Amino acid sequence: MALATPTPRVGELLRDWRQRRNLSQMEVSLDSAVSSRHLSFIETGRARPSREMVLHLAERLEVPLRERNRLLLAAGFAPEYRERSLEDEEMAPVRGALDRFLKAHEPFPAIVVDGGWNMVAGNAAIGLLIEEIAPELLADPPPNALRLTLHPDGMAPRIVNFAEWSGHLMHRLRRAAAITADAGLRGLHDELAEYPDVRLDPPQGHGVGEEIVLPLRLRRGDDVLELFSTMTTFGSAVDITLTELSVEAFYPADERTAQLLRQAVGA
Question: Which Gene3D superfamilies does the record match to this protein (predicted)?
Fold first, then answer.
């Protein structure tokens, strides 16, 4: 007979988030205008926080919206934040904005990923990045962008600076897992770490002082594309789906790459 797992109390969850942020009770107290004594009582279960207090502390601790709902439920309150599918009618303005951004970024590649790095949208130029990826990696939508990049049947054989790029991505993934406490991201990290030649961190001292940003050097035929990327998020979103969406836009790092991309996409 399986034993039920006890539901964590809100105080325990708040303490976990405080410790995850490497903050003392005194630091949180000063930042949130809540006495350290009262905060201690909340964490130990001696005091029951109000709904407003839970949200106030969650804001100060930068708890993701999905986890704020969990805090509210643990405190006996209804969730505050909704999670809509990107396909919902209410999300039509968001889809339109994303489509316009992706199209406007052509002939340079751009993708939209969710909180698990699953690729939910991309523009026409993304075909240049995934053109030699094994079909089975693209078979189950949405494909995972990190898996497509680091899998030996994905982009990995074409990445000239694979040690640096894989270390960069793994460092980002590990940081995201730590910030969000997302078990799915931790599992993805463990999976990718087992792929051949994947680095957990960029090689120490490589390229220091030589480059402004770390480029992705991707072999395409007899050419090598040099790209760097930026990440854009919905900073003012109050919907869980939107807060977890990011747009990764790739830019040419040199004029030769820009010309090759324009020729390939027909721009």
Answer: 3.30.450.180, lambda repressor-like DNA-binding domains (1.10.260.40)
